[in-house]
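Example record

One chain of 469 residues, shown exactly as stored in the release files.
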Amino acid sequence: MTNETEGFDFLILGGGSAGYAAARTAHNLGKRVAVVDGAAELSGLCILRGCMPSKTLIYSAEVLHLAQQGDVFGFKGGNPVADMQAMQQRKREVIREFSEYRKEQLEDGRFSLFKDYGHFRDLNSVELSDGKILRAEKILISTGSIIKTPDLPGLRGCSFKTSDDVLDLNYLPEECIVLGGGVVACELAQFLARVGCRVVQLQRSSHVLKEFAQASSETVAEALRDNGINLMTNVSLESFEDRPGERVRVNFEHEGESRTLETKFLFNALGRQPATASLGVEKVGLVLRSSGHLAANEYQQTNVPHIYAAGDCTGPHEIVHVAIRQGETVAKHAFGQSVNPMTYDSLLTVVFTDPQIARVGLSQEQMTKRGCLYTSASFPFDDHGKSILMEAKRGYVAVHADKNTGRILGAECASKDAGELIHSMSVAVGLGATVHDMLKADWYHPTLSEIWTYPLEDLAEEITPSKPD
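Predicted structure tokens for this chain:
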């Protein structure tokens, strides 16, 4: 097929969470939509190689970890061990339904689906690898991200594993070295440790999960070490080299000392980068940020107004619900519908370590930079009834509120099931509720959720609500 041209109202490059949300929204507006996605499996990162498979395996490891604590909870039994093949089978069964459903949605006839890759031919057209040309009035780039390999001496040339490999493991490595201290690194390092792998984790900054509050970071770091992980921070990674016996040597500096470790399982968890290299964005003059992400405004427009970007390829937060909202915003804005600009003041994010970390709204650092007059209160889980009986005493909750009005600006939680607990505060932040409003609700005892009442009560005593005029 050569130079055959087909026209559309809306052309979407990438059929993941952002792309599908945009396609669905545009179709509902009566637009003719094309989706271009050349992946071997349709569905996007979250379903196939991200959220769903990782959380399935992490939960299996959590159940295994609890089952090994019989002496703590007062029962006797054997010492269960991980069956990696059985875990993989369960993972495949869990994600299959989600994957098949998304594939059906993309192929149900609402959109013209092109299972191919494309690159920009000019400002309004994309050429597919088979030579077909698609033209459109509006274009969305939602091509996601790929695993990043930093330019560290020898790393790109040595035999390392990625999160894709870890999520497909059907055997148990005896040991591994994990590079990184971000979300993926911490979640999967703990998973590997809990299924029985000896783990060394090397983090370049002073603490893991550096984008979160330091108290949250320290809570997780303590748990990782308690799970047997040899976690080293302030590491300077110097070089990597393949060694005989399918081993990799890692040379690094730690606490002023030159160190060398070797492993058969080097896990590169040093982040992801936008998947835009083959699109030819330079041909149409699209601006990239220093990180390589496509620059976009609050309506997801690039510097070329009819070309939009959404999802992991633009950021600033690589989270599914953010990508979905961005995609919906693109479709509405592109075709003249009333839509609110993207804002991240009520951003909700969760890390699925154990304990989990969750936060919503503005951080203390953000509030300080903005000059917000705020006050905070916190409460620890080791002084809370339900967490004590669950042996889930590690962590804390904190609430940040406007000092004059009591409106809740942000909250954070490091605890067992923090990802579930944070939603109470997400509702509060999203609706602009005050600490006094939240105390009008019932909080059942004994539950983990009632722990929020302690910082809320402290703040309510401190803040006198302003009276209406």
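Notes: The chain has three domains: 5-146+273-334, 163-270, 348-462.
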